[in-house]
Task: structure prediction
Amino acid sequence: MSISNNPADNERMAQLESKLAFLEHTLDVLSGELEAQQSETRKLHRTLKELHRQLDSLQRDTGNAEAVEEPPPHY
Result:
């Protein structure tokens, strides 16, 4: 690969390198955000499962295990 001394080529190469650095940084940031969001989703999923378990337990304790509120007939 030959190195160009053309100022236009050098400027273009500098712009491409700058864009690449920006895209790499953006990818790193987005990757971190996605990881945090997935972690939060897993946490919320565990909390929801625990709440369902507690609700089922409360319904059994009060004798309302079958008393799940159903939507009105017009639905």
Q: What stands out?
A: The two ends are 70 Å apart (CA to CA). The longest helix spans residues 7-62. Residues 34-59 form one domain.
